[in-house]
Write a structure and sequence with these properties.
Layout lengths: L1 H14 L11 H26 L1 H26 L3 H40 L5 H14 L1
Length: 142
Amino acid sequence: MLNGLWYSGGIAFVMLGPMGAVPAGSGIEGTIAASVKQLGKVIGLVWLGSQATKPVRLALAVLTAPAADRLIASTQRRLGLKKKNAVSLLVAVIFGSTAAFCLAVLAYGVARAAMVSTVASAGSPSSSAAFLIRRRMMEGQQ
Protein backbone atom coordinates (compact mmCIF):
# COMPACT_ATOMS: atom_id res chain seq x y z
CA MET A 1 0.00 0.00 0.00
CA LEU A 2 2.80 2.39 0.90
CA ASN A 3 4.58 1.69 -2.39
CA GLY A 4 1.39 2.49 -4.30
CA LEU A 5 1.09 5.78 -2.45
CA TRP A 6 4.80 6.52 -2.90
CA TYR A 7 4.78 5.96 -6.66
CA SER A 8 1.46 7.72 -7.25
CA GLY A 9 2.43 10.74 -5.18
CA GLY A 10 5.98 10.83 -6.51
CA ILE A 11 4.94 10.63 -10.13
CA ALA A 12 2.30 13.31 -9.66
CA PHE A 13 4.74 15.60 -7.82
CA VAL A 14 7.48 15.28 -10.43
CA MET A 15 5.24 15.25 -13.54
CA LEU A 16 3.20 18.23 -12.45
CA GLY A 17 6.33 20.02 -11.27
CA PRO A 18 9.72 20.59 -12.86
CA MET A 19 9.81 17.60 -15.22
CA GLY A 20 6.24 18.01 -16.44
CA ALA A 21 7.10 20.08 -19.49
CA VAL A 22 7.19 17.71 -22.43
CA PRO A 23 8.69 19.09 -25.63
CA ALA A 24 6.25 18.77 -28.50
CA GLY A 25 7.25 16.27 -31.16
CA SER A 26 6.10 16.00 -34.73
CA GLY A 27 2.35 15.74 -34.52
CA ILE A 28 0.41 13.81 -31.92
CA GLU A 29 2.55 10.67 -32.36
CA GLY A 30 5.72 12.62 -31.56
CA THR A 31 4.03 14.23 -28.58
CA ILE A 32 2.91 10.85 -27.24
CA ALA A 33 6.40 9.41 -27.74
CA ALA A 34 7.95 12.37 -25.91
CA SER A 35 5.43 12.01 -23.07
CA VAL A 36 6.12 8.29 -22.67
CA LYS A 37 9.86 8.95 -22.68
CA GLN A 38 9.42 11.66 -20.04
CA LEU A 39 7.24 9.35 -17.92
CA GLY A 40 10.00 6.73 -18.06
CA LYS A 41 12.49 9.27 -16.72
CA VAL A 42 10.07 10.28 -13.98
CA ILE A 43 9.46 6.67 -12.91
CA GLY A 44 13.22 6.13 -12.79
CA LEU A 45 13.66 9.21 -10.62
CA VAL A 46 10.87 8.11 -8.27
CA TRP A 47 12.42 4.62 -8.09
CA LEU A 48 15.76 6.15 -7.05
CA GLY A 49 13.95 8.13 -4.38
CA SER A 50 12.24 4.98 -3.18
CA GLN A 51 15.59 3.30 -2.69
CA ALA A 52 16.83 6.22 -0.60
CA THR A 53 13.73 6.23 1.60
CA LYS A 54 13.43 2.47 2.05
CA PRO A 55 14.25 2.47 5.82
CA VAL A 56 11.62 5.15 6.49
CA ARG A 57 9.01 3.28 4.47
CA LEU A 58 9.84 0.05 6.29
CA ALA A 59 9.27 1.78 9.63
CA LEU A 60 5.96 3.18 8.34
CA ALA A 61 4.91 -0.28 7.18
CA VAL A 62 5.55 -1.70 10.63
CA LEU A 63 3.63 1.15 12.26
CA THR A 64 0.64 0.83 9.92
CA ALA A 65 0.44 -2.98 10.01
CA PRO A 66 -2.34 -2.99 12.65
CA ALA A 67 -4.46 -0.66 10.49
CA ALA A 68 -3.87 -2.92 7.48
CA ASP A 69 -4.97 -5.93 9.52
CA ARG A 70 -8.16 -4.10 10.49
CA LEU A 71 -8.81 -3.20 6.83
CA ILE A 72 -8.34 -6.82 5.78
CA ALA A 73 -10.65 -8.04 8.56
CA SER A 74 -13.26 -5.45 7.61
CA THR A 75 -13.09 -6.49 3.95
CA GLN A 76 -13.49 -10.13 4.98
CA ARG A 77 -16.54 -9.34 7.11
CA ARG A 78 -18.28 -7.06 4.64
CA LEU A 79 -17.75 -9.21 1.56
CA GLY A 80 -17.69 -12.62 3.21
CA LEU A 81 -14.25 -13.50 1.84
CA LYS A 82 -11.42 -15.65 3.14
CA LYS A 83 -8.36 -13.75 4.31
CA LYS A 84 -6.33 -14.71 1.23
CA ASN A 85 -9.08 -13.45 -1.10
CA ALA A 86 -9.52 -10.22 0.86
CA VAL A 87 -5.79 -9.50 0.66
CA SER A 88 -5.79 -10.31 -3.09
CA LEU A 89 -8.72 -7.97 -3.65
CA LEU A 90 -7.09 -5.11 -1.75
CA VAL A 91 -3.79 -5.60 -3.59
CA ALA A 92 -5.62 -5.59 -6.93
CA VAL A 93 -7.44 -2.37 -6.00
CA ILE A 94 -4.16 -0.70 -4.99
CA PHE A 95 -2.31 -1.77 -8.15
CA GLY A 96 -5.27 -0.91 -10.36
CA SER A 97 -5.67 2.55 -8.87
CA THR A 98 -1.92 3.20 -9.15
CA ALA A 99 -1.93 2.14 -12.81
CA ALA A 100 -5.01 4.27 -13.54
CA PHE A 101 -3.37 7.24 -11.84
CA CYS A 102 -0.17 6.81 -13.89
CA LEU A 103 -2.21 6.65 -17.11
CA ALA A 104 -4.11 9.79 -16.10
CA VAL A 105 -0.86 11.67 -15.46
CA LEU A 106 0.47 10.46 -18.83
CA ALA A 107 -2.73 11.59 -20.58
CA TYR A 108 -2.46 14.96 -18.85
CA GLY A 109 1.14 15.31 -20.07
CA VAL A 110 0.14 14.45 -23.64
CA ALA A 111 -2.77 16.90 -23.57
CA ARG A 112 -0.61 19.66 -22.09
CA ALA A 113 2.17 19.12 -24.62
CA ALA A 114 -0.34 19.05 -27.49
CA MET A 115 -1.91 22.26 -26.26
CA VAL A 116 1.46 23.99 -25.94
CA SER A 117 2.55 22.89 -29.43
CA THR A 118 -0.77 24.05 -30.92
CA VAL A 119 -0.57 27.45 -29.23
CA ALA A 120 3.11 27.88 -30.09
CA SER A 121 2.61 27.05 -33.77
CA ALA A 122 -0.56 29.17 -34.08
CA GLY A 123 1.00 32.39 -32.85
CA SER A 124 3.29 34.60 -34.86
CA PRO A 125 6.96 34.56 -33.81
CA SER A 126 6.55 38.00 -32.29
CA SER A 127 3.41 37.20 -30.28
CA SER A 128 4.14 37.38 -26.58
CA ALA A 129 2.26 34.16 -25.71
CA ALA A 130 4.14 32.10 -28.30
CA PHE A 131 7.43 33.67 -27.20
CA LEU A 132 6.80 32.83 -23.53
CA ILE A 133 5.76 29.27 -24.33
CA ARG A 134 8.83 28.70 -26.52
CA ARG A 135 11.11 30.19 -23.86
CA ARG A 136 9.61 27.97 -21.16
CA MET A 137 9.97 24.90 -23.37
CA MET A 138 13.62 25.75 -24.05
CA GLU A 139 14.28 26.22 -20.32
CA GLY A 140 12.70 22.83 -19.64
CA GLN A 141 15.02 21.12 -22.17
CA GLN A 142 18.22 22.45 -20.56
